[in-house]
Design brief:
Length: about 450
Amino acid sequence: MKKFILSSLLMMVCSSALAQDEPSAPILFTNVNVFNGTDQALIKNANVVVTGNKISAISLEPLVVAGGRIIDGEGRTLMPGLIDAHTHIMLHSDPVTQLMTQDTFEQGARGAARAKAYLDAGFTTVRDLGGNCFGVKNVVDARVSPGPRIFCGGASITQTSGHGDFRMTNDGHPRFDGYAASGVANTTKTTIIADGVDDVRAAVREMLFRGASQIKVHAGGGVTSFKDPLEAAQYTQEELNAAVEEAERYGTYVTVHAQVNNAVVASLDAGVKTVEHGLIMEEETMIRMAEAGVYWIPQAFLALQDVSSNPLFQDPIQNAKLAKVNAGARQAFEWGIKHNVKTGWGSDVFGADEIFATFRQEFAFRDEFYEPIEQMQQVTGVNGEILALSGLKNPYPDGPLGVIAEGAYADIILIEGDPSEDIRLLMDSSNISLIMKDGVIYKDVLN
C-alpha cells in the first residue's frame, strides 16, 4: 500500500497515517442504522459495502466481501460525511485583521490546517466562498495534506466599496493606481474588485480559469465590511446578469452574498441558483425563491447569538449591522419553513481557532427551527444537491455526494448514538467513531 512521505510541517497537522492510505480491499459495514441523506427515517440493521472509493451495496440482508475488511457498527448510525456549504478555508488568522498583512505562504499553511480541522470534525466536503483556496485544494486532492473535498470559488467578486472591498485606507484602486497597489485582499485573490459589465465578465472568467467550481458575487451590503451600508444594493442588474451569463456559459452557477431583500430580488432577476444569508427578506421573495427552486443558505449561529458578545463583529459599525440581521433572522427562518424553501447548511465561520471551534453551534441554533432529521438532510443530501449545481465545473464528477447510495462517493461517518433524536451529537468529535473520505478511512476508534 502506497505511503506518502510528509514534510515535518505537514506531519504536525496530520495525526493519522491512515488519512494518506489508498483504498484497497472492499470494506463491509455491518449492524449499522443508515441515514441515507434524503429519507425521513433511518434504515435499521443494514449492511453497507465500500469498493474502492464508491459505495457498492446497501442491504438489509447479510453480505459477504471476499478478502475484505468487516467493520461491526454495533448499532451506530452510518451517514454521509457532513458538508459545510459556506466556508472560508483561507480566512484563518488571529486576529482577523492579520489577513491583510500575513505572508501568502503562512496563509496557505493556515488554510491547510483549517482544512484538516474540518475533516477532523467529520466534514468530508466544504464549499469555499471567498479565498484563494486552489492551492490547498490541490494538496488535499493529492493526499499531501489531509482535508475535505473543496469546491473552491476563488476570489469573491465585489464592486468598489462593496461588501468584498477590504482595502485599507492607504491602499490604491486597481483601475486608478494599478493592481499591485490595490491592497492585500485584492492582490491575493481573497476578493477581486470589478466594476462595470466588462470587468465583471473578466473577473468571472478569471476565476473560472483558476479552477472555480462556482462563482461568488457580492450583491448587497454585509456585516463584516465597513464602507457599505447593510441596505446597499450592489451591482447593477446588467452587471449581475453578466456574471450569471458567464458562469452558465461554463456550465456552472453564481451564488450571491445578499442579506437584504433588494439584493436578493435583483439576484433572482439575474438567475442565481443559491442565496447566502438572506436574513432580511420579505415573504413574497421567499415565495419566489421556493417557486424558482433557488437554494437558501442562511446562518443561524452568526445571526442569532448575542450581538454584544459575538467575537467576529465587535467593531461598533459591524455590531450595529449585526443587530439588524439579528432582528430579521427568526422571521426569515419562519417564512423559509412555511414556504418550503430549499435550505442548505453553512456556517460562514472564519478567524482564529477558538472562533472556528464554535462553528458546529450552527446545529444548536438551527435546532430552534428544524427537526434533527431535517438538519441531517440539510448538511448532507441538500448540500450535495447544491454542490452538483457546479455541473461542468464539478471537480468530483464521478458520483453524487451527501448520500449513502450505490455509486455514490464513499464519504461516510459512523456516529455514537442517533442524531435523528439529538442533532447535537454532531457537535462533538468524540461522538464520531469513524471518518471515511473517498473510500479511505481517516479516523477509526473501533480497532
